[in-house]
Amino acid sequence: MKIGIIGAGSIGLLFAAYLSKAFSVTLYTKTSEQAEIISQNGIYLQEGSARSKFSVSAKPISQWEGEEGLSIIAVKQYQLHSIIKQICKLEFIPQNLLFLQNGMSHLKLLNTIPAANIFVGSVEHGASKVNSNTVSHNGKGDINVALFKGSLQIIKEFTVPCGSINFPISLKDDYYNMLLNKLIANAVINPLTAILQVKNGELIVNSFYFSAVKKLFLEISYILNLEDPIKRFRDVVRICKKTGNNQSSMLKDLEAGRRTEIDAILGFLIEEAQIQQKTAPNIESYYNLIKGIEKDRRGAH
């Protein structure tokens, strides 16, 4: 099966490196310079002191024609509008698309795509982009995928070889619940670590930070009307422990002066609160703080 990966950030590079062990992979990059570097030199995957090289075909995204058996969209949520425009302009609409975005505000965009089979996924691996063709795999986590619309056949064929290359992908029955789990973890961990400038594990090691975690989680639980909040909270704590030495993607984005995915995460929850006519003072405060830091940092870059 041929796989196309759209977006060559940390997740795009990580997926391209691993999947190239079992599939013919083409990575589509934002710039032709990055595509050239990857095509000529391959992708380097760092895990602790180990470093492996993978040969991957790379092209600028302008050359993507959607001809692969499965296209994996690994761009940030706020970059989706331009990708979806490009999909709708393609001569042949790709029939199998897998979206790997944080948050849940992208779901309404997916309904506008005329593809036959659309899948959504959540990625809990810790990864950071070192340079144009090097990715550091900082921590192993779960990858979950579920059907958004259409048939499961192609995704079943795709996930089977992934286990044998040490990159297992689990199929879930309910896409909404799957993304909700990731949203809750992102909504707690990302803003707090970004504002406090700490690694994920600090949120549960420091008792004062942990009090803030609990308070924010309670508000999220209230907005989302969670049926089993204790189980969901344990999941957040588990992820903090599992990714204890990792920096959240939001903290890394702020440090690099990049735009964050705060609108897709806390912005989604603020909209939900407004629909239900509920107040969300903690969520709104953290949202405003992140937007403020983002404005300052991006202005400085």
Low-confidence runs: none
N/C terminus separation:
41 Å
- Summarize the biggest pleated sheet: 8 strands, mixed
β-strand percent reads 15-25%
Overall average residue pLDDT: 94
CATH architecture name of the largest domain: 3-Layer(aba) Sandwich
Secondary structure class reads alpha/beta
Helix coverage percent: 40-55%
CATH-defined fold name of the largest domain = Rossmann fold
The CATH homologous superfamily name of the largest domain equals NAD(P)-binding Rossmann-like Domain
Return Rg in Å.
19 Å
SS element count, helices: 12
- Whole-number tally of structural domains: 2
- Number of DSSP strand runs: 12
Set down the secondary structure blueprint.
Blueprint: E1 2-6, H1 10-19, E2 24-29, H2 32-41, E3 43-47, E4 50-54, E5 57-60, E6 70-73, H3 80-89, E7 96-99, H4 107-110, E8 117-123, E9 126-131, E10 134-139, E11 143-149, H5 153-164, E12 170-172, H6 175-196, H7 202-205, H8 207-224, H9 229-242, H10 249-255, H11 262-275, H12 281-300
Parallel strand pairs: 1-2, 1-6, 2-5, 3-10, 6-7, 7-8, 11-12
Antiparallel strand pairs: 3-4, 8-11, 9-10
